[in-house]
Design a protein that fits this description.
By secondary structure, the chain is an all-alpha fold. The protein has helices at 2-9, 12-37, 45-63, 66-90, 95-118, 144-150, 155-173, 175-185, 187-192, 197-221, 235-245, 250-269, 277-307; strands at 123-125, 226-228.
């Protein structure tokens, strides 16, 4: 039994599921890297993603195009980012309080929209919510394992990795990226050097909002053609954790998001065995705690070595 579970967890099917499930985490957390590097204080990732999921489904429902659905989700993220920026940057509201309010209101708002738009509770499933079609690469069919893992995915899966690479290139290979990192490290020094700190924070907030909205659209448009209450189920917090653990580096953040995506895939893989569903559903968040604990222990040891203390 044990070895059956191990072989299942290490099977190509498990890694293929991890690749798909990590897609929204990679897209969202890549945008979050810009948010983190400029220290905007925004923690409302779950709100942006859940709202993006609804408008992704609604945009596709109205137009019959998943691309337009993703565009509607991106616009919803932009709108939320603008409201957040006005509250925090111009009205001097607390970023933490606004983030908590955003996250608390997201479930209620999307449930209300579900009732108003589709006159239903729980979930709405309709073929009019057109999903992306899977892409098949003929070159991968010659390699069975690679074919199972990397083939037959929607375009957003491949876009996620390209987006993370582009985010890294912008952040560490352009003058714009150098300035935004300077804003995050020392905003007073950046301001003294002639950099408009508020402008860079606005830009990075908008990038984060658009990215989280796009990430949210993945869930209704990945083949399910539905929207349900609390559809993201904490994935926004996984994006936030990935960003924080990766310290705002898009490539490191992508690797952390892949790890959490793999933990999410275990909820599907292990559901075939007679294991309590409560334990299975805990896996992604247990993985978060393990990662944070390991980083905390590493940082603690590093500080002890520097100070010369012994325990």
């Amino acid at each position: 039994m044990f070895w059956d579970i191990v072989s299942t967890c290490l099977s190509p099917a498990a890694f293929a599921a991890a690749l798909r499930l990590s897609c929204p985490l990679i897209i969202g957390s890549t945008g979050g890297c810009f948010n983190e590097k400029t220290s905007t204080g925004n923690l409302a990732y779950e709100c942006f993603m859940l709202t993006g999921a609804f408008f992704g489904a609604y945009g596709s429902y109205l137009t019959g195009s998943p691309l337009m659905g993703s565009l509607a989700a991106i616009l919803s993220g932009l709108a939320l980012a603008v409201i957040y920026g006005l509250l925090v940057y111009h009205l001097n509201c607390s970023a933490i309080i606004v983030s908590v309010a955003y996250n608390s209101a997201a479930w209620a708002l999307t449930t209300l929209l579900l009732v108003v738009v589709w006159n239903t509770r729980g979930q709405f499933n309709d073929p009019s919510i057109v999903s992306y079609e899977n892409l098949n690469w003929d070159v991968l069919r010659k390699f069975p394992v690679l074919d199972m893992v990397f083939n037959n995915n929607i375009p957003m899966v491949y876009f996620a990795f390209a987006y993370a690479a582009a985010g890294y290139a912008v952040m560490y290979g352009t003058p714009f990226g150098l300035r935004l990192r300077g804003v995050g490290i020392n905003p007073e020094a950046a301001q003294a050097a002639g950099i408009n700190v508020r402008k860079y924070r606005w830009i990075c907030l908008i990038i984060m909002g658009a990215s989280m909205g796009c990430a949210g659209s993945y869930m209704p448009l990945c083949g399910m053609s539905l929207f349900s209450e609390n559809m993201t189920r904490g994935r926004g917090f996984l994006c936030l954790t990935s960003t924080l653990v990766g310290k705002g580096n898009p490539l490191r953040t992508m690797m952390v998001a892949l790890l959490f995506g793999y933990a999410n895939s275990m909820t599907l893989v292990l559901s075939t065995y007679n294991m309590p569903t409560q334990i299975i559903n805990m896996l992604p968040y247990v993985m978060v705690l393990i990662v944070l604990l390991s980083i905390g222990i590493k940082n603690f040891k590093g500080s002890a070595d520097i100070s010369g203390d012994t325990f």
